[in-house]
Amino acid sequence: SAVISQKPSRDICQRGTSLTIQCQVDSQVTMMFWYRQQPGQSLTLIATANQGSEATYESGFVIDKFPISRPNLTFSTLTVSNMSPEDSSIYLCSVDRDSENTEAFFGQGTRLTVV
Amino acid sequence: GENVEQHPSTLSVQEGDSAVIKCTYSDSASNYFPWYKQELGKRPQLIIDIRSNVGEKKDQRIAVTLNKTAKHFSLHITETQPEDSAVYFCAASSGNQGGKLIFGQGTELSVKP
After folding, report:
1. What phi and psi values does residue B53 have, to the nearest 5 degrees?
2. In tens digits, what is the pLDDT along chain A, a chain of 115 residues?
3. CA atoms of A81 and B33, how far apart (whole Å)
4. Which of B42, B97, B107 to mutate to test the interface with A (most CBs of A within 10 A)?
């Protein structure tokens, strides 16, 4: 199974600033996904990151707020822009587990607190 | 788009009892239904999954059933143990993007010794 390294693991940021979260996979994967988990809540898909094309965003999420990069098949970044306290969440990246595109395997998450 | 409803939101059982968590989905195109266990401060971990061409799947004390007609699927944990205490999430996806998941709201399971 893929090993996903996500960093930072946690951060405390001032409102109005931006934070970029990195996700590194130890093997090439077609799709990478970014999720948000607000405190005490479920996981919500933010966007699908495709190599060589723009990310596909889910309803309620926009590129200006959550720009995503996918420069190659093993790496992606998610930026949380112009942060407010409402952005305080855990952000997780995930990949499809194997060539059959089954099972989302998650990174350890980034716990973001905006003050 | 897909919508997944999960019930109950909290569940408390005695050690050794069974626990059942139920989910319904809206998109008939969904064909992959995983269940995740999330312990406090940790990432979600897959515990079992089922595809739409299967009605039931079992792995030791854990089983999942799927009713495609009714669009619902359930997680069954037998002989519960205190270490089963966690938040459980069901999810659904369609097509071949298994990683693009729509999650249920979660069930906080508490197993009392």
Report:
1. -90, 10
2. 678 999 999 999 999 999 999 999 998 888 899 999 999 999 999 999 988 888 999 999 999 999 999 999 999 999 999 999 999 999 999 987 655 545 678 999 999 999 9
3. 33
4. B97
Please list the residues that pair with A45 across neighbouring strands.
A35
Nearest CA in chain A to B95: A101
Name the residue among A97, A101, A105 with its Cβ closest to that of B97: A101
The DSSP-derived string for B23-52 is: EEE--TTEEEEEEEEE-TTS--EEEEEEET
The whole-angstrom separation of Cα A111 and Cα A103 is 23
Strand, helix or coil for residue A65? coil
With tokens 């989905």, the residue in question is B25
Helices (H) and strands (E) in chain A, counts: 0, 11
Q: How many CB atoms lie within 10 A of CB A29?
A: 24
Contact, A5 vs A23, CB < 8 A? yes
β-pairing, B10-14 vs B107-112, is parallel
Which DSSP category does B88 fall into? E
B89, B98, B106: residue with CB nearest A96: B98
Give the burial class of A79: count Cβ atoms within 10 A of its Cβ; 0-12 exposed, 13-18 middle, 19 or more buried: middle
